[in-house]
Amino acid sequence: MKDHTFDPRLDTNLLLDLYDDDREYALVAFSDFLKLTPVLMGELEKELSTGTVESFRQKVHKLKPTFSYVGLPGMTRQAEGIEKKCREAAGTDELRRLYEDLKTDFEKNYELIQGEAAKLSTM
């Protein structure tokens, strides 16, 4: 994907390592992210309100790698931190602030990923 320049807010080195020159594969990953992560975030929100710490942790674990696939390893680390905090938390209320931070960052970056997917689809 030497002919495509990713937004500097994304980890370009990671994306080039993952996708090399395979624009179609990158587009699939970005499209899947756009389709699946809002659902996963909704599941997290529900688990936070009605679930157990363990079920919340499992959802975070499932969500965690999706961020790296689109060049957001900082969000992967953020999800990893939540997952670790789950091991110490007595209840989901203790996790709310960490989740809210993740949600804010997700909402901020979702639009960025939409733009990158649009650019990839027109190449």
Short précis:
This protein is mostly helical. It has one domain (12-121): Four Helix Bundle (Hemerythrin (Met), subunit A).
H/E topology pattern: HHHHH
Low-confidence stretches: none
Q: How would you describe the shape? A: elongated
Helical percent range?
A: over 70%
Averaged pLDDT: 93
**SSE class:** mainly alpha
Task: Give the strand content.
Answer: under 5%
Count of runs of 4 or more consecutive helical residues:
5
Tally of individual domains: 1
Name of the CATH architecture: Up-down Bundle
What do you see in this structure?
The chain has 123 residues and is mostly helical. The chain has a single domain, classed as Four Helix Bundle (Hemerythrin (Met), subunit A) (Up-down Bundle), CATH 1.20.120. Helix content is 75%, strand content 0%. The chain has helices at residues 12-19, 23-50, 53-68, 73-86, 96-121. It is elongated and about 50 Å long. The relative contact order is 0.17.
